[in-house]
Design goal:
The structure holds 2 protein chains of 2 kinds. Helices cover 31% and strands 26% of the residues of chain A. Chain A is α/β, with parallel strands linked by helices. Chain B is an all-alpha fold. In chain B, 84% of the residues lie in helices and 0% in strands. The longest helix of chain B has 31 residues. The relative contact order of chain B is 0.13. Classes of the chains: A alpha/beta, B mainly alpha. Chains A and B meet through helix 2 of A and helix 1 and helix 4 of B.
Chain lengths: 232, 255
């Protein structure tokens, strides 16, 4: 569904992505892990064309995305940390996003209800805490029932209850056959969700394996243990 | 074309700085016109206020707004939108709300106290300066990744257009006082939108008589319909060129 073909990116004299080649098949739930500064966010951004790779290409559902924009209607993206225009209320941000994707009808408001966002729709974005903004981001990612979910450190900044709600939502969408890419540092919470693992280091993909293969290779059940064994 | 600019406008007009800017302009224009005994004197004071404050506020506010919106721009980029649309929407949002602030704060008062061609021209110049310096701010913001550098660049640009440029012109005038450089000065004035606006307005007033021979040459050019049209055309170019450059750069920028 998404293939990145040998993409490389350099910021100044820093090589952030080096010949990254990954494949996401439909229905997969991929954990994108790796140390800080390993290029995870840059990889995600190049799929969304926020960063334009120096070489290589990104294939989305069989088509090269270069210069395209309509394909992003099929992606729900939740960024690491978001700031919204300060004077907009939550309700206005929501209606703006709905305005952008007018032709997408069936809205998924499950997360909005669970987070009880409607009760605080009148609050201005500038007054919200980081966690609250994160919740708004999560709701926006799921709102349009996208085929593909890209979540960049979704639970960072969320309280335990909210991150559990989000986790359940991701599992539900996975059961519906959605493709998901999650980048996270908290390996323990990924255990039950994912089917594949991509490990990145210094801008390169160290390995891309399915969880089953990893289990067989390492004879471990916990993702964190598996990774530790492989890296060591 | 998506309607994001509506949402951007709604956000900016509720911004405290923009409200404050409107009130300051309103206070200045009302007090200037009620203090001066003739409206043309008031117009002259207004001209000086507009030429200083409007470029400064538009440059600094727009630059800061663009930096504060960087995460929001990222969020918009993750939506099915063209980069073109996003940049246009932000530009239209900024110039509409800042233009509105200028019109409510100064434009209306000018038209009430000086309902003439001159008053109208001052209003148009003020609005064009708003557009020009917003476009320049967008260019400054897109060229530098670092917020402090971007704001610094805007302040330097303002200093250059509002003060340093005039210094250079004066220096040239004194250095080459013996040569007939008046026509050349018309071309030079085109290179600074603030000067161009100032000359345009001054030439419509009687004070141009005080400017001696240069004033006479200027009057020959800026006083005619053709000259006015060329000047407004140049001011329009001052909006279009910086904005087009910023748009070109934004399309290729990594966020």
């Amino acid at each position: 569904m998404i293939i990145t073909e040998h993409i490389s990116k350099r910021f100044g004299n820093q090589q952030v992505l080096k010949d990254v080649h990954i494949t996401c098949r439909p229905g997969a739930c991929i954990a994108l892990i790796g140390p800080n500064g390993s290029g995870k966010t840059t990889l995600i951004k190049s799929i969304l064309q926020m960063v334009i790779p120096d070489s290589g290409k990104v294939i989305f559902q069989g088509e090269d995305i270069r210069g395209e924009w309509a394909y992003r209607a099929k992606i729900g993206f939740m960024p690491q940390m978001t700031r919204y225009p300060e004077n907009m209320t939550i309700g206005e941000v929501m209606s703006m996003m709905i305005d952008i994707r007018k032709d997408q009808k069936n809205l998924d408001e499950e997360l909005i209800d669970q987070y009880q966002l409607k009760e605080i729709y009148h609050k201005r974005m500038g007054t919200l805490s980081g966690g609250m903004r994160q919740k708004v981001g999560a709701c926006l990612a799921f709102l349009f029932q996208p085929d593909i979910l890209i979540l960049d450190e979704p639970t960072a900044g969320l309280d335990p209850l909210s991150s559990e709600i989000l986790k359940q939502k991701i599992l539900k969408e996975k059961a519906r056959g959605k493709t998901t890419i999650i980048s996270s540092h908290v390996l323990s919470e990924l255990d039950e969700m994912i089917t594949d693992v991509i490990y990145m280091q210094d801008g390169q993909v160290l390995f891309q394996k399915s969880l089953r293969d990893l289990e067989q290779e390492t004879q471990e059940v916990k993702l964190s243990k598996m990774i530790a064994k492989i890296i060591a | 074309m998506n309607k994001i600019y509506k949402h951007v406008i709604a956000d900016i007009i509720r911004n405290r700085i923009v409200i404050f800017y409107t009130l300051i302009l309103l206070l200045a224009s009302l007090s200037v016109f009620s203090l001066e005994d003739t409206s043309s004197k008031g117009l002259l004071s207004m001209l000086n206020i507009i030429l200083m404050i409007v470029p400064l506020v538009c440059l600094i506010f727009s630059t800061i707004y663009m930096y504060n919106s960087s995460e929001f721009i990222e969020l918009l980029l993750s939506q099915p939108l063209k980069r073109n649309t996003i940049w246009w929407s932000l530009f239209i949002g900024l110039i509409t709300s800042l233009g509105l602030a200028f019109f409510v704060g100064a434009g209306l008062v000018i038209l009430i106290f000086e309902p003439s061609f001159l008053g109208l021209m001052l209003d148009i110049c003020g609005l064009l300066l708003t557009f020009i310096f917003t476009a320049i701010a967008l260019l400054a913001a897109v060229l530098t990744k670092d917020k402090a550098k971007g704001i610094g660049l805007s302040i330097i640009l303002w200093l250059f257009y509002a003060i340093i440029f005039d210094g250079i012109v004066l220096f040239m005038l004194f250095q080459w006082a013996d040569y007939p450089i008046e026509k050349f000065m018309i071309v030079i004035s085109m290179l600074n939108p603030i000067d161009l606006a100032r000359i345009l307005i001054l030439m419509q007033m009687d004070v141009s008589a005080l400017m001696g021979y240069t004033g006479a040459i200027f009057k020959d050019f800026f006083g005619t319909t053709g000259g006015i049209l060329i000047s407004f055309g140049t001011l329009m170019l001052w909006v279009i060129i910086p904005f087009a450059c910023s748009l070109r750069y934004f399309k290729k920028k990594d966020l």
